[in-house]
Amino acid sequence: GYGTWLHGEAVAAGLCMAARLSARQGWLAEAAVERIEALVRRARLPVVPPAGIDPSRLRERMAVDKKARDGRLRLVLLRGIGRAVLTDGFDEAALAAVLEDGAAAAAAGAGA
Predict the structure, then answer these.
(1) What is the pTM of this model?
(2) What residue numbers bound the domain in which 69 lies?
C-alpha cells in the first residue's frame, strides 16, 4: 500500500513527476508542467510524494509496477498535454533526479 496516502494522491503526484521527467527528456514544455501542477493543486492533491519518502525506495517500488515488462520499467510519460506514451525509453539518471527533487520538495513542504 501507500501508508496513509490515498491511491488518488499517489496518482496525482506521479502525474506531476512524470510531467517533470517528460520535460527533462525534452518532450514537454515547462509551461505544460506548470499547468499540470496548477490543476493538480486546484484539486487539492499533492504534486510530490509524501515527506520522508526515500527516493531509492520509491524507485524500487516502481520496478514492480504492473507496467514493468521483462525486468524493464515502463513509464507513462507525456509528449504534450493529452499525448501520453508508455515507454521504457527514458534517461534513468533523469528519473533519479526527478525522484530526488520530489523528495526534497516534499521535505521543504511543497507538496500541496
Answers:
(1) 0.87
(2) 7-107
